[in-house]
């Protein structure tokens, strides 16, 4: 397990300039919000604009009421009609304010949910366009992880930005009243607030740097949590008695996070208290000024209440706006991660003017000095590969573990492109063909095929998802891979839920799963069929039956088989022997035995084991 942060993750704090620059991401963010739901976006904005005028209106009506009460209290026959009208108005405003707040919360929540769904779909759709080796890169994974987190975190950003604008408008209304009375009060207010803002901004920077620096470790923490409590891992964890090891690692990682976060939280809390005190001093200084004016008689008592109320609200609004600024800019910085993820482009590109895939392959696939190196490795997984896979030919790949067999077939399906050399199909580079077309015409079943926690039929249909409703095709595919006998035994037959994860799921044995996976290969009319150790878990009788059919079912089609069982391998037209990524022998079973080279050695070794 590695905990080293990838090189390009920035862990140093950010400056105010960085934060302001990050706000540039907001327009794109709002475009995304708008795309999510124009109606909710407009409704939300309108509600907030109306809501922002409420505080000053309430304070002003309050002022009128107090002044009215004072005047009336000095009269003998007071006419209270106007007073009650004012009280009624304030009551109405209070109810409206509350209603608006609730409506805003509701629209925020609905828009947030839609936004989260919309962005999750966008992330999945974009991830689907990316290359396999991008998924194998840890820096990429961190980006994906942070982008995923954005889908939840950004709904908060949405309401924060909206609230920010709303509060700014409210502040404008309140400040106008205060300015009319005494502009100096505004200055006093700013002096009281700015240190708190700078402090808040400093600690947010620190916390951002900390969280970002912890991304790889957080990923490991999630992985350890998954290892410790998941249906897929439970068996091995029990057998190897790993829970102690896993829990220790979890404690070690989570303990480190706790300590790092605690240190920062304590510092932040102490400084926060100090800055809040400064704010209070500023507020009371202003309060004293207003009281003196009231005692002197230069403002009414109603005005005193209005100004003090305005000042108090302005202070908390300003505090909120400034601290939200750091949160908003923080969010905007995380947004950069989100948009960066969408900027990642696949390297394996579809050809601009693609050639259509041949109706029937004429010359076959030609490997011309093909070499491939995984991006995260400095060793060649395949090197100097030159051979032809003829149309209709059945080719078997043999070689020891890590010899490069799986890599070779991944190159055939363009999951990767060769690092050197080229692969030709009917005389043209594989890269010149339409990528979707190519993948449609190459059927691969990998050794680590997925066991979908779906129904039996769906598990086969994934081989050609366009035909997911085509039950006769699914049943025919099952018949070809011998999975049909299995369906007959299941209580729900083809609609039987497989796997243990969901209710009423039935778990299959390794060999049974393999038959199901094998059926996927027969779901499409591929011209090249690749089976990467397709029968390793089948019993001897099943394997024999599968291959007896295989030759017949793939008549006229090319096929590549990877197998460690020579009983399977010998059925191929030609056998390609790989060693350390290179081709060392090629020929039929009989030819290679006569040659008495590596193949003969491996074959005899296995045959000896059976004697
Ligand atoms: N995704 C990957 N990233 C980096 N290196 C890889 C990756 N996949 C395979 N390799 C390396 O490439 C080499 C060839 O692997 P490959 O899977 O092609 O071997 P194989 O012959 O299919 O082995 P096996 O018989 O065990 O399935 C190995 O050394 C392996 O470590």
TrEMBL record:
It holds the Pfam family ABC_tran. It is found in: Cell membrane. Gene3D superfamilies: ABC transporter type 1, transmembrane domain (1.20.1560.10), P-loop containing nucleotide triphosphate hydrolases (3.40.50.300). It is a multi-pass membrane protein. The chain crosses the membrane at residues 184-203, 270-292. Residues 46-330 form the ABC transmembrane type-1 domain. One of its GO terms (molecular function) is ATP binding. GO terms for cellular component: plasma membrane. The keyword Membrane applies. SUPFAM superfamilies: ABC transporter transmembrane region, P-loop containing nucleoside triphosphate hydrolases. Keywords: ATP-binding, Cell membrane, Membrane, Nucleotide-binding, Transmembrane, Transmembrane helix, Transport. InterPro entries: AAA+_ATPase (IPR003593), ABC1_TM_dom (IPR011527), ABC1_TM_sf (IPR036640), ABC_transporter-like_ATP-bd (IPR003439), ABC_transporter-like_CS (IPR017871), P-loop_NTPase (IPR027417), Type_1_exporter (IPR039421). Residues 365-605 form the ABC transporter domain. This is ABC transporter ATP-binding protein. It comes from Mucilaginibacter xinganensis.
């Amino acid at each position: 397990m590695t905990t080293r942060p990838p090189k390009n993750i920035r862990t140093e704090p950010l400056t105010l300039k960085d934060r302001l620059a990050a706000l540039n991401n907001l327009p794109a963010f709002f475009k995304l919000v708008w795309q999510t739901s124009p109606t909710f976006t407009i409704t939300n904005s309108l509600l907030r604009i109306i809501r922002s005028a409420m505080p000053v209106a309430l304070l002003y009506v309050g002022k009128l009421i107090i002044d009215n009460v004072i005047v009336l209290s000095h009269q003998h026959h007071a006419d209270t009609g106007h007073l009650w009208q004012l009280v009624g108005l304030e009551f109405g405003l209070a109810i409206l304010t509350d209603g608006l707040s609730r409506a805003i919360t509701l629209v925020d929540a609905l828009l947030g949910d839609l936004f989260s769904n919309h962005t999750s779909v966008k992330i999945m759709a974009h991830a689907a366009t990316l290359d396999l080796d991008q998924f194998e890169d840890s820096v990429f994974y961190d980006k994906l992880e942070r982008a995923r987190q954005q889908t939840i975190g950004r709904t908060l950003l949405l309401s924060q930005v909206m609230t920010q604008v709303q509060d700014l408008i409210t502040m404008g209304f309140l400040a106008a009243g205060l300015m009319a009375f005494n502009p100096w009060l505004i200055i006093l207010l700013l002096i009281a607030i700015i240190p708190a803002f700078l402090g808040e901004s400093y600690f947010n920077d620190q916390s951002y740097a900390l969280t970002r620096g912890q991304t790889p470790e957080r990923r490991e923490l999630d992985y350890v949590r998954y290892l410790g409590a998941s249906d897929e891992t439970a068996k091995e964890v029990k057998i190897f008695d790993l829970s102690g090891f896993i829990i220790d690692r979890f404690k070690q990682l989570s303990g480190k996070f706790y300590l790092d976060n605690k240190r920062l939280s304590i510092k932040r809390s102490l400084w926060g208290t100090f800055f809040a005190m400064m704010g209070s001093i500023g507020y009371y200084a202003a309060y004293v000024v207003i009281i003196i004016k009231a005692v002197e008689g230069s403002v009414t008592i109603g005005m005193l209440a209005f100004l003090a109320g305005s000042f108090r609200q302005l202070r908390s609004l300003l505090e909120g706006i400034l601290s939200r600024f750091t949160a908003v800019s923080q969010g905007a910085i995380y947004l950069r991660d989100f948009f960066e993820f969408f900027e990642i482009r696949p390297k394996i590109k579809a050809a601009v003017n693609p050639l259509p895939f041949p109706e029937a392959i004429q010359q076959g696939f030609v490997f011309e000095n093909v070499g491939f190196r995984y991006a995260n490795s400095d060793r060649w997984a395949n090197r100097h590969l030159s051979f032809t896979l003829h149309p209709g030919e059945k080719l078997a790949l043999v070689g020891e573990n890590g010899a490069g067999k799986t890599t070779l077939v991944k190159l055939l399906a363009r999951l990767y492109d060769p690092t050197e050399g080229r692969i030709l199909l009917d005389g043209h580079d594989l890269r010149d063909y339409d990528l979707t077309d190519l993948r449609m015409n190459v059927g691969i079943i990998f050794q680590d095929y997925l066991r979908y926690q779906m129904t039996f039929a769906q598990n086969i249909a994934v081989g050609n998802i366009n035909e997911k409703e085509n039950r006769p095709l699914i049943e025919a595919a099952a018949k070809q891979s011998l999975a049909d006998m299995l369906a007959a035994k299941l209580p729900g037959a083809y609609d039987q839920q497989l796997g243990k994860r969901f209710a009423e799921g039935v778990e299959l044995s390794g060999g049974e799963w393999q038959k199901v996976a094998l059926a996927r290969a027969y779901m499409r009319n591929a011209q090249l069929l690749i089976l990467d150790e397709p029968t390793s878990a089948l019993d001897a009788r099943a394997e024999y039956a599968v291959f007896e059919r295989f030759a017949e079912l793939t008549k006229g089609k090319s096929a590549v088989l990877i197998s460690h069982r020579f009983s399977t391998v010998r059925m191929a037209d030609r056998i390609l022997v790989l060693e350390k990524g290179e081709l060392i022998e090629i020929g039929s079973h009989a030819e290679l035995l006569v040659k008495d080279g590596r193949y003969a050695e491996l074959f005899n070794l296995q045959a000896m084991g059976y004697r």
